[in-house]
Amino acid sequence: xxxxxxxxxxxxxxxADRRELQLLHFWLFLAISLAALLANGLILSAVACDxxxxxxxxxxxxxxxxxxxxxxxxxxxxxxxxxxxxTRTISYKGCAAQVFLLLFFLATEFSFHTIMCYDRxxxxxxxxxxxxxxxxxxxxxxxxxxxxxxxxxxxxxxANTFSLPLCQGNxxxxxxxxxxxxxKLSCSHSGYxxxxxxxxxxxxxxxxxxxxxxxxxxxxxxxxLRIPSQQGRHKAxxxxxPHLAVLSLFLSTGxxxxxxLPSISSLSLDLALSILYSVVPPVLNPLIYSLRNQxxxxxxxxxxxxxxxxxxxxxxxxA
Length: 319
Known about the structure:
It is a single chain. The chain is mostly helical. About 75% of the residues lie in helices and about 0% in strands. It has helices at about 20-50, 55-85, 90-125, 130-135, 135-160, 180-185, 190-225, 230-260, 265-280, 280-290, 295-319; strands at about 10, 90. A two-stranded antiparallel ribbon has the order 1-2. It starts with 8 loop residues before the first strand and ends with a helix. The model has no long low-confidence stretch (mean pLDDT about 80).
């Protein structure tokens, strides 16, 4: 029975067999990764440079952009490398690192979604206590707890998964390393059950956060509907809808990808869902927030106008 530590590498799923399609996948992933880097980089720069965005929501949005960048940089570069060089391999240590980092950023992102929901709840339902409940120290503590939770969650699952003996080959049915596909290679029933137990505990914790989010938004919508002016209701909804849209995208793709029925499972569907929950959100999240958040749009417009005018002045002075 071979031990997992003696396995030198894994074989990832080939996105295509034809060389032309492999190069097409490379260019598509390159475009997606550049779009994610640019969009999230603009969000980070705008929040850091504009004092109007030095608010709890701006601080949490900055952390959310960091997790999005982490997700896209964990899975896409290796997929691009494999498509470009027509290979499928990933080293054992590289696979472990990919699992750890992806779980770390995804778990941290979900924690920040929960915190941002609490931020919206306090802002709309308890506005007089907003400065007290969400001061700078409280925000720092919540952010530290989110990152620590993601680290602990990822460490436990990664350590348990890669301690299992593997005897079912080394081919993974995914274009990046993912725990369910690694567990299919395991021949240890006790280790498999231990990982299932960890997943159940994690699912219960995640469900608790989900219940908190649903309860908070029920209270938020009840409070918004009691606002007498239509302009006030519109402003309140505009601050909640971007977070709700991003959260819905994150949860729907992730949950359906891992809890879908085996009868509707297929290779192409699994691949599409994995791209939806690991690659697409880092690109869409900044767009959703920037389209609906007026302060963020103003900050981005001011920053880009300043950069453009500075470039024009440098060009004129050089001429």
